[in-house]
Amino acid sequence: MRTDHAPQARKNGQERTAKKKCIEQIEKGETPMSRTIVDTILPTTMVGSYPRPHWFTYQLHGRDIWDAFKDVNHAEAFEDAVRTVLRDQEQAGLDILTDGQMWFDDYGGCIGSFVWYWYERIHGFVPVKHSHPLVEGGNVSQNDAAWLTDWGATSVTDTVKRGPLRLVDLYHIAQRNTHKPVRCSVGAGPINLTYHVHLEHYKTQKDLAYALVPIFNAEMKEMVAGGATFLQLEDLGAWLPVLSGNTADFDWVVDVINKTVDGVDAKLSWHFCFGAAWGNASRGLFPSDAGYGSLLPHLHDTQIEQYVLDFAVREMEDAHILKDLPQDKEVAVGVIDVRNLQIETPEQVAQRIRKVLKFIQPERLTLTTDCGLRALPRFCAYNKLRAMVEGARIVRAEIAGGPGGKKRQPV
User: Fold this and answer.
1) Most buried of 47, 202, 236, 342, CB within 10 angstroms?
2) In angstroms, how far apart are the furthest CA atoms of the chain?
3) What's the predicted TM-score (pTM) here?
4) What is the DSSP letter of 97?
5) Domain-wise residue ranges, the chain
6) How far apart are CA 334 and CA 167, in angstroms?
7) What is the pLDDT of residues 322-370, one digit of tens each?
């Protein structure tokens, strides 16, 4: 059930209008306005995945969703699970929702479907779990080797071609079950997918990443044509130049991201976390100890409105780097640590928000979780979201100078 594309002429006109408005704002010395999804200061959302309800045990196992959903029990259970996850978010008080990625199977790493959903449906990849090339190379820590082995890898043996990814249909299932806006997670993205692959058809990760770009670009444009207004690219490819030790790699990383989102007429965010296999940061691969300062300044030329960053895991130590964020960019900051079972208090969340507001205006700030919540017990996930919402309310009152709040000075 694919949705026809909107007329290209109308879409091109919208893009020209948006670009013209942005240029006019810059010429006037104003801050270019990002697309507004909700009319709320410090809007709350979550990154993507959410714990499956215990009763939802169906697995896609590489099938087209419309093959799997021929089984009416699977189809009904899937939509019921999505509806349940959306309801949890509504009751917690989130402003912008996600579908919880109920289309992720129970694979290694807890969120192994983050890559396997794509490997199983993009032609050219072998949908069979192999040993991981990084483990075979022997240059990873014992802990990283353990989760990479659990996660597994694939091989790319032929030219990659778009398969039945169906993201627009997954969006429709979610959006028809809530009146609140649904942000769509897209990925693992084209660079991220090169991390867990034995390269047989392509010579380099760079070659494979560029080959994947048209697939993601087409999928995202189809989602927009189907009504989606907010897309979040999930791609840890931001870390590739750090891993390679070659800062020149930032040039093609930025180019791949820009080509991936080229012509996609929606609010666009980009999430690159520190890894979250079984709820663990992958410290040996994505250096959470060093933080985002080593890479974010190199990514400012991406055509992305919003960066989505893990801050809570480092107790907001990276907040200071936001003072140098270009004026046409905003940020969604993680104020909930998803790698910890401890449920934050609203005041603890409020304090994290205050640290960030020392360096960026509240109008450019969205509040989110560090990463997906799938590895957590549902009780913890839900109550962490509640704490985030209550913490946001505390700080909103302070900004407004309302009851119990002292009006904050602008940055």
Assistant:
1) 47
2) 63
3) 0.89
4) B
5) 43-400
6) 25
7) 999 999 999 999 999 999 999 999 999 999 999 999 999 999 999 999 9
